[in-house]
Structure formats: C-alpha cells, structure tokens
Amino acid sequence: MKTITKKSSVNVNQDRDWKLLLNKYATPILLVLLIAVNAIFTPNFANVNTMWNILIQMTTILLTALGMTLVIASGGIDISVGSVMAISSIVTAKSLGFGVVPAVILGLLISAVCGVFIGFIIARFKIQPIIVTLPMMIGIRGIAQVINDSQLLNFNEPAFSFLGTYKFGGSVPIQVFIMIIVSASVYFIANKMSFGRYVQAMGDNYKASRLTGINTFMVTISIYMISATLAGFAGIIETARLSAADANAIGKLMELDAIAAVAVGGTPMNGGRPNVIGTIFGVLIIQIITVAVNMNNIPYTYSLVLKAIVIILALWARRDK
User: Fold this and answer.
1) Domain of 174, in residue numbers
2) What gap in Å lies between CA 133 and CA 121, rounded to an integer?
3) Which of 101, 144, 190, 233 is most solvent-facing, going by the fewest CB within 10 Å?
C-alpha cells in the first residue's frame, strides 16, 4: 500500500509539473508552432520582407495592447482604444499646418484627455469599465468623424510621414525601434515601479488595495490615460505610414485584437500581474494569423474565427487546475 501511495504521489506531482509548464510557456510554444507551420505551408512566409511587414503591421496592435495590459491587470477593460486611435489620427492630420511637432503633441493630448475622462468616470462613480468605455467607443469615433465630415483626409508631409515609413540602413523600419522603446518603458512601469505594484494590487483585490492606502482614484485615472495615450500614438504612427487619416476606418476592431493579445499573453482577465512579455508574444500570434490568412487568399472573416480559437486554447491552457 505504501508503494502504491508513493507512486500515485509521484504521478500527481509529475502531472502538476506538466500543467505548470504548459501554463507558463503556452504562448511562446503556440508562437513557435504558428511560425513553423506557416514557414512550411505558406508561400514566401519565411521571406525577410514578410518578417519586416509583420513587424510594421503589428506596431499599432502592440501599442494599444501594452496599454490594455495595464488596464486588464487592474481589473478593468477599455474597448474605446480603436476610437481614440481615430480621433488622434484626424486631429493630428488636421493640425499639420501648425507644424509636425505641435500636431503630434495635440494628437497625444486629445488622446490623454479621453483617457483621463474615462478613468475619472470609472473611479469617481464606481461604474463598470465596459459600461463606460462602450458609449465612449461610439462617441469618440463620432466626434472624429464630425471633425472632417467623415471624409478621407490625404496629406503630403514628408517630415510627418517619417514616423511611419523611415527605414534605418534602408531595411530596418522605424517601427521596430518605437516598439522596443515603448515595450521597455511599459515593462519598467509594470515590473520595476511602485505604480505597477498598485495596478496588480487593484486587480487582485480592489477594496483591499484601497484600504491599504493606495490612491485607487488617481491610479485608475493614470491607467486609462496611459492606455488612451498609447492608442493615440498608435493612431499617429498608422496615419504617418498611410499619409492619410480616415476616422471611419482607422482603429476599427483594434480593441478586439488588443484584448485578444493580452488574453493570449497570459495577463489574468479578471485582474492581477501584468504580463508585458506575454502580450508581445500575443501580438505576434494575432498578427501572424492575420498575415497568414491574407497570404493564403483566405477570406478575412476566417481570421476572426482563428483568432477566437487561439484565444480559447490559450485560456484553456491557463485555466485553474
């Protein structure tokens, strides 16, 4: 009987180890599998230009997803980020007559104001974040459409387009350096600053964090301000790349990709420790799915189904055992 009990105990421990391993490395394993499968079955996927295109196209998702990581880690959610991208885009493009720097600053400022307003409503009136950000998603895009009468705004401003088209050494897109700088900054905030600990504490137990002296009011406002500012920056980068601003299209469904990347990346959807590195992997997974669908001439709607399956599998791998 002792021998049987001992063997059973060993088996249980081994199962637990495998489950912990799967929980920890599910996202990078999935990413490697996606790359391997596409390298074999998708023509020209392993081409260097394809890799650069993936990095360029994932920039807007990554910037919004990094802000969303902090929001979700705090126990909230922000489905207005796509609309914030739109208003930042159109405001920046309309302001280029004042100069590139003032236009970019104004675009970031209007984004930050949107985030502060959302955070204030949530913190002051204790309203569920999704209830606040849903009408803001509609309202902010509506304002963006009104600004240019829902028309496509084209422009020719080389100094501004630099932000979206310049390549270092003729090959490395500027977006790569932008992503590195922003990712490192958010990682530092989330893991090395007291602000990151406050975010995690609020996600773990909002009431307890408030009782321990954390200024949950100001932290909430700051979280949504950071999220909106990063979304606005994403809108500016995309506008610079396209040399056009379209409030009807830019940022559309971006909130879904951002949330998907955070979910796949391992940040608990009910709040907790922000997993910035996981979010980066999650963004890569989401973007590779989109690119693979396009390169295989599969209708875009199928990519939505694939993304849903990937999210479900990632959440299943991290479910509580």
Assistant:
1) 31-316
2) 10
3) 101
The Cα 137–Cα 131 span in angstroms is: 10
The domain that holds 302 is classified in CATH as: 1.10.3470
Q: Which residues pair with residue 167 across a beta bridge? A: 173
Quote the pTM value.
0.92
Q: What is the pLDDT of residues 56-106, one digit of tens each?
A: 999 999 999 999 999 999 999 999 999 999 999 999 999 999 999 999 999
Contact criterion met (CB below 8 Å) for 263 and 315: yes
Q: Does any domain span residue 223?
A: yes
Confirm whether 123 is domain-assigned: yes
Q: Is the pLDDT of residue 185 over 70?
A: yes
Question: What is the pLDDT of the chain when averaged over all its residues?
Answer: 91
Report whether pLDDT(22) > 90.
no
Q: Answer yes or no: is 3 within a domain.
A: no
Amino acid identity, residue 220?
Answer: T
Question: Does any domain span residue 1?
Answer: no
Of 72, 135, 117, 110, which Cα lies nearest the Cα of 231?
Answer: 110
DSSP string computed for 135-165: HHHHHHHHHHHHHTTT--EE---HHHHHHHH
